[in-house]
Every structure is written in C-alpha cells, then in structure tokens.
C-alpha cells in the first residue's frame, strides 16, 4: 500500500479569498504542502428553507473562483458535504496530516464546532491552529484597565484607536508554490449541494474612493445609496478587514467608526454569548410584548402605512439589503410602535439579509429595542415621519420601493399613542 502523503490542511470557513488571508498564509509557510478544504456544513445549510438563498450562491461563487485560481497551480479546493467531523474522519484516513490551519470564528456555534474538531484531531495527534483574520482586535485585545470587556461603544472605540497606534497592520502573502499539487475532485455546482442559482450580482468587492471619501456626509440618506455595500464581503471574508481599515484610516474616520462598531459587537457576542437569545440588560426580560402576529406580518410585508418603514421592508424582501438608517427606523418601529419582541425582527432579518452577521444583527436589534449595550435610555423612539423629513425629504428612496397605491395604505398605529404605550410598557418592565 502506497505511503500517505504528509500534508497540512487549510480549512476555509468565512474567509473566501486567497490574498491577505492570515491563516492561509501561516499554513503555506508551515513547511508542508497545503491541501485547501471547504465543508458544506449540513448543520447550517439544512436550516435554510429557501433553496434560492443568495448568500449560498454568493459564497459558492467565491469558492469556485478560488478553485479556478488554484487549478492554475495544479491544486484546487477539496470539498465535503455533511458534518465537519465526518469530513475530518475521511481526511485523516486519506492523508498523513500534520496540522489543520483555519481562521478564528467568534460565534458561539462556531466555537462549539471548533472545540469538537480540535478534540477529534487531538486524538489523532493533529493540532488545530486558528488565527485572527476577520477582525483587527479580538477577544481580550481591547479591554478596560482591569481586563474586563467594554460594554459601551464610545469608550471601546477610543481605546481601540489608542491600541491601534502601537499595532502594525500586517498584510499576508500567498505563496502559491506551497499548495499541494493534487487533482482535487470536480468542484460541485450549486445543485449538487441542494441549492439554486440566483440573480445576485457577481461583483468583486471594491473600496470605492468616491463613496468612502464622502461617507460621513451622505451615508444617512437612503435615496442616495451612498454606502459601501461591503457588509456581505466582510461577512464572508471576500475582502480583508485589514485592507478596509488601512483604507479607512487614510480616507474617512466615519467609515472607520462603522468598522469599529463591527468589532465591538463581535467582542460583546464573544464575552456575553447569552445575548443570542436574551437581552444584554437583564431587566428587559420583563417587557410585556404584544407580539400581535397579524401586525408582525404587516411589518414583514411592508404594509404598515408608514412609507419609510414599508420601503425598507420591500427593499429587504426584494434584494436582501436595507439601508442602514432605515434599518434603525424599521427596528424601532417593530419594537416600540408595535411592541413586538426584537427577537422576532432579528430572526426575520437573519433569514433575508445578504450581509447577515449574528453579532451585528443581534447588537443592532438590541440597540433599537433599547435592551442592548447602549448608553441611551429606552425612551428613544424613532418617529418615522420625522426621519423621512430629515433623510428622504424628496421621497427618492420611498418612491423607489413603493407605488402610489402603496402610499395610500392606512397606518397600522398612530405614532403619538404608540409611543406613549411603548414608554408605559418599557417603564413598567424596567422599574419592575
């Protein structure tokens, strides 16, 4: 029987790029040839009801692009479909594996998965080595003087910027000569993993100077669409966060602050995993939500009679994206005007958003509901009409997503009385 080849493995997860990829670079510099691997995790994919899920199509295209690039170097991505541990059982049978390299993931489910894989590999005398790649600072790198995590954004961002002054942002090279020359099996099509092609645009993520230079000036106006649209690229790692931060440092501090928000919510999720299902502030467990299913359906369909709310929901339903300012308005409307549990809205967004990121989605929904790690009190209630006057006064955004007929829809609630009701319910819960 021929001797098994000694290799190291790089396991792609949410870092779908060959350039400036920390874990991949470390693997390629490890002294052994590298076999790139991706696992279509059925534990995740089976939960997706829509077989035309644009997110699956997005990362599948990114993977396929990398596979085609690697084919030029007589390599390719070896893929599996199933549970990660089953894939590694097969890999350990087929290869003499020295080390498995990957990039860290800070979501509770991912941490649990990685612990399970590390435990399995340890029994085979194989080490799982993970590296920081999706953030500039992780876990305990930006903390208070006593070592405790920050729970309010502003002091966190100030400290983040201070720490950055003494931190050199590295760029990681990819040495293509160190990939294993291996006839990887034919790369699976979407239908092979049970999904269908979608109409998602095939655009390489780019840092657009015209958008980022004036980001602070125009980002709040949904009709202008003056945002980077890089959320999905950061979510799946088709662009490097290091590249984005270096660009933001040179071009726009407002955008840099948005990238810091992303890291703030990631470290909140890491240190306080209870936020996945519970409010960050315990006293908000007592809110007596109305949870009216008919009103929730009206909100989901964009038929509340508040044009900016409805336009936002139509945009989300049609293209899997919603302008950031509008996200705040629709989330506030659901939790305050309709008194529907933020977890309902968060779950709906999770099913629709192309750039869905558990930490940011959770953090922003709790922020809107007033129960998260936010210094502002619960009685901030966005007035949809005032938000429209401020940020979409000519109704450019509204008219993009709503017809004249839609604009005749009767409001599901009246703002003043809904606000009053919300303040009473929240006040009662908080005072306990």
TrEMBL record:
<feature type="domain" description="Photolyase/cryptochrome alpha/beta">
    <location>
        <begin position="6"/>
        <end position="136"/>
    </location>
</feature>
<keyword id="KW-0456">Lyase</keyword>
<dbReference type="InterPro" id="IPR018394">
    <property type="entry name" value="DNA_photolyase_1_CS_C"/>
</dbReference>
<dbReference type="GO" id="GO:0009416">
    <property type="term" value="P:response to light stimulus"/>
</dbReference>
<dbReference type="GO" id="GO:0006139">
    <property type="term" value="P:nucleobase-containing compound metabolic process"/>
</dbReference>
<dbReference type="InterPro" id="IPR036155">
    <property type="entry name" value="Crypto/Photolyase_N_sf"/>
</dbReference>
<feature type="binding site">
    <location>
        <position position="255"/>
    </location>
    <ligand>
        <name>FAD</name>
    </ligand>
</feature>
<comment type="similarity">
    <text>Belongs to the DNA photolyase family.</text>
</comment>
<keyword id="KW-0157">Chromophore</keyword>
<dbReference type="InterPro" id="IPR005101">
    <property type="entry name" value="Cryptochr/Photolyase_FAD-bd"/>
</dbReference>
<feature type="binding site">
    <location>
        <position position="215"/>
    </location>
    <ligand>
        <name>FAD</name>
    </ligand>
</feature>
<keyword id="KW-0285">Flavoprotein</keyword>
<dbReference type="InterPro" id="IPR006050">
    <property type="entry name" value="DNA_photolyase_N"/>
</dbReference>
<dbReference type="InterPro" id="IPR036134">
    <property type="entry name" value="Crypto/Photolyase_FAD-like_sf"/>
</dbReference>
<feature type="site" description="Electron transfer via tryptophanyl radical">
    <location>
        <position position="365"/>
    </location>
</feature>
<keyword id="KW-0274">FAD</keyword>
<dbReference type="InterPro" id="IPR014729">
    <property type="entry name" value="Rossmann-like_a/b/a_fold"/>
</dbReference>
<dbReference type="GO" id="GO:0006950">
    <property type="term" value="P:response to stress"/>
</dbReference>
<dbReference type="Pfam" id="PF03441">
    <property type="entry name" value="FAD_binding_7"/>
</dbReference>
<feature type="site" description="Electron transfer via tryptophanyl radical">
    <location>
        <position position="289"/>
    </location>
</feature>
<feature type="site" description="Electron transfer via tryptophanyl radical">
    <location>
        <position position="342"/>
    </location>
</feature>
<dbReference type="GO" id="GO:0071949">
    <property type="term" value="F:FAD binding"/>
</dbReference>
<feature type="binding site">
    <location>
        <begin position="258"/>
        <end position="265"/>
    </location>
    <ligand>
        <name>FAD</name>
    </ligand>
</feature>
<dbReference type="GO" id="GO:0003904">
    <property type="term" value="F:deoxyribodipyrimidine photo-lyase activity"/>
</dbReference>
<protein>
    <submittedName>
        <fullName>Deoxyribodipyrimidine photo-lyase</fullName>
    </submittedName>
</protein>
<dbReference type="Pfam" id="PF00875">
    <property type="entry name" value="DNA_photolyase"/>
</dbReference>
<dbReference type="GO" id="GO:0003677">
    <property type="term" value="F:DNA binding"/>
</dbReference>
<dbReference type="InterPro" id="IPR002081">
    <property type="entry name" value="Cryptochrome/DNA_photolyase_1"/>
</dbReference>
């Amino acid at each position: 029987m021929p001797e098994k080849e000694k290799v190291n493995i790089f396991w792609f997860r949410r870092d779908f790029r060959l350039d400036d990829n920390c874990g991949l670079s470390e693997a390629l510099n490890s002294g052994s040839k590298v076999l790139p691997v991706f696992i279509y995790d059925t534990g995740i994919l089976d939960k997706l009801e829509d077989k035309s899920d644009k997110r699956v199509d997005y990362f599948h295209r990114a993977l396929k692009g990398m596979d085609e690039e690697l084919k030029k170097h007589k390599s390719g991505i070896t893929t599996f479909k199933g549970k990660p541990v089953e894939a590694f059982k097969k890999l350990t049978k087929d290869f003499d594996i020295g080390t498995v390299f990957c990039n860290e993931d800070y979501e509770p489910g991912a941490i649990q998965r990685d612990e399970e894989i590390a435990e399995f590999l340890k029994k085979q005398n194989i080490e799982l080595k993970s590296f920081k790649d999706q953030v500039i600072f992780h876990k305990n790198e930006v903390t208070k003087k006593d070592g405790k995590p920050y729970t309010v954004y502003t002091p966190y961002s100030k400290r983040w910027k201070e720490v950055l002054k003494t931190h050199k942002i590295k760029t990681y090279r990819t040495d293509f000569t160190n990939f294993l020359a291996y006839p990887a099996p034919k790369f699976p099509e979407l239908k092979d993993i049970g999904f269908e092609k979608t109409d998602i645009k095939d655009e390489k993520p780019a840092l657009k100077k015209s958008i980022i230079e004036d980001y602070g000036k125009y980002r709040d106006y949904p009709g202008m669409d003056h945002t980077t649209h890089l959320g999905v690229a950061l979510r799946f790692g088709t662009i490097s966060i290091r590249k984005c931060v270096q660009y933001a440092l040179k071009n726009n501090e407002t955008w840099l602050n948005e990238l810091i928000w992303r890291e703030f919510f990631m470290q909140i999720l890491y240190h306080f995993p209870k936020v996945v299902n519970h409010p960050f502030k315990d006293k908000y467990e007592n809110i007596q939500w109305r949870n009216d299913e008919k009103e929730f359906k009206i909100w989901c369909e964009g038929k509340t009679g508040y044009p900016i709310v409805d336009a936002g929901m139509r945009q989300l339903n049609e293209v899997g994206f919603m302008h950031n300012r509008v996200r705040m308005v629709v989330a506030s409307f659901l939790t305050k005007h309709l008194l529907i549990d933020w977890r309902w809205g968060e779950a709906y967004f999770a099913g629709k958003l192309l750039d869905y990121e558990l930490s940011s989605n959770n953090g922003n929904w709790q922020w809107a509901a007033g129960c998260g790690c936010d210094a502002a009190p619960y009685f901030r209630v966005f007035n949809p009409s005032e938000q429209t006057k401020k940020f979409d006064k000519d109704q450019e955004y509204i008219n993009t997503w709503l017809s004249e007929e839609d604009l005749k829809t009767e409001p599901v609630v009246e703002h003043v009385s809904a606000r009053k009701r919300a303040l009473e319910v929240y006040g009662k819960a908080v005072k306990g």
